[in-house]
Amino acid sequence: PISDLAGMPLSAYLTAAFDVEEAALAGEAKRLDALGGSVLLVPSAASDAAPNPGAEATLIASLPLARPDHSAELPPADVRPNPSPEPPPPDAPAASPIGSATVGLVLAALLVLLIWWLT
């Protein structure tokens, strides 16, 4: 439904969503923007045949999509998995959550005593 475009002209939607060449759209913009109800937009890459909508639909416009103006050869992507992290050596001491909690409690107690002593 054209109402789904929330006031955006159909020609502006075609330019943004399908990259329709603005020069090709210039002659059709007024007619497209005047449409109401529902429209079916089919990119040319969706079919090898020329548009033939039949009796159930009316072909309004056939607009060329913009083509890239460059070509590039890209190197293949590196698809090797990330290496696994190395396990810690067996003689390395493990971090103890109890030790960390104890240090935190001792520091908090010292802070409370310091505040009490200063007041």
Describe, in plain words, how this protein is organized in 3D.
The structure is a single chain. With 119 residues, this protein is mainly α. The chain has helices spanning 10-18, 22-25, 29-33, 97-118. The radius of gyration is 33 Å and the shape is elongated. The model has no long low-confidence stretch (mean pLDDT 81).
Number of strands: 0
- Category from helices, strands and their pairing: mainly alpha
Uncertain stretches of 5 or more adjacent residues: none
Order of helices and strands: HHHH
Q: Looking at the structure, what is the overall shape? A: elongated
- Please report the distance between the alpha carbons of the first and last residues: 73 Å
Q: Assess the beta-strand content as a share of residues.
A: under 5%
Give the quaternary arrangement of the chains.
Answer: single chain
| Average pLDDT figure | 81
Biggest sheet statistics: none
In which range does the helix fraction lie? Answer: 25-40%
Instruction: Provide the gyration radius in Å.
Output: 33 Å
Total of DSSP H or I helical runs spanning 4+ residues:
4
Kindly list the characteristics that best describe this protein.
mainly alpha; 0% strand; 119 residues; 4 helices
Outline of the structure:
The chain has 119 residues and is mainly α. It has helices at residues 10-18, 22-25, 29-33, 97-118.
Write the layout of secondary structure elements.
Blueprint: H1 10-18, H2 22-25, H3 29-33, H4 97-118
